[in-house]
């Protein structure tokens, strides 16, 4: 037998053949576009650390959502920046809050677009933490159970305004069960929950905190978000959320946690979402702006890697670019 016996290059020898044997594919159906909304009118504020991303007011958001839907993107994830913040995030569950008003507006403007709302307190609290702060033994702590009650109220108010799905991102224990119960009691048993199940205390959320105006004023989020060194714990987090009734589980960030996406995919049989977060977006943008990286190639490679690791759905600030490139045949 002549050397080499196996010629794997055979299947790489022409572009049509490569297209046929390509194993992982990107589809616009898998994309969710995160967006930021604040009170006011005609607002289209560039977010400095996230070139190409904006804070919208409700009118401009509705307009942008039309464009998103026209690109074939099935869903948006909304983050709200309230008029006022206080210690308990009072604006978070008001029927006339910024998210609640935005949701009802979008559902009229683009009824087919799936509107998912982020449920958390950090955008609404003046201290910027994802829950209520209390004092224990001379130290501040985030009060899990009191926070969960407020998250239920917030989730319910989003759904009453017309949200199609809620996505709790706080990392309190027991919140998925409590939100599920609260929604069911109010007759919203048909509304799914996408839980941020394995959410790490990552440094890659920095640009988001500028966008959502939600950096913690003291301390950090390590007492509720996961230690970046842990992986088995992610499986426990996911198992608990599945047990509590989550319909979709999310791993966050995405690109730096491909091993976690893979393990969750292998172990569980519900849809897995991955959040390609703000810092991952900004890093690509910054390198591309300096000419150190081909932006399109870099974005396609990153997104494909997240899919290859096993994510069914991808939350990404590149959703519009990806939709356009997919439409053009990549
Ligand atoms: C709020 C929340 C954060 C993100 C999504 N929801 C920030 C944080 O936890 O500090 C990060 C998203 C991103 O970086 O793109 N709980
Ligand atoms: Zn939060």
Write the topology of this structure.
Blueprint: H1 15-21, E1 31-37, E2 44-46, E3 54-56, H2 58-70, E4 75-80, H3 98-109, E5 114-119, E6 132-136, E7 139-143, H4 144-160, E8 165-168, H5 175-185, E9 194-199, H6 206-211, H7 232-244, E10 248-252, H8 258-267, E11 272-276, H9 278-289, H10 295-308, E12 313-316, H11 319-327
Helix pairs in contact: 2-3, 4-5
The structure holds ligand PBG and zinc ion.
Describe the structure.
The protein has 330 residues and is an alpha/beta fold. The chain has a domain at 25-250: TIM Barrel. The chain has eleven helices and twelve strands. Strands 1, 2, 3, 4, 5, 8, 9, 10, 11 and 12 form a ten-stranded mixed beta sheet that branches. Strands 6-7 form a two-stranded antiparallel sheet. A hairpin with a 2-residue loop joins strand 6 and strand 7. The longest helix is centred in the middle third of the chain and has 17 residues, at 144-160. The protein is globular and about 75 Å long. The protein binds ligand PBG and zinc ion (ZN).
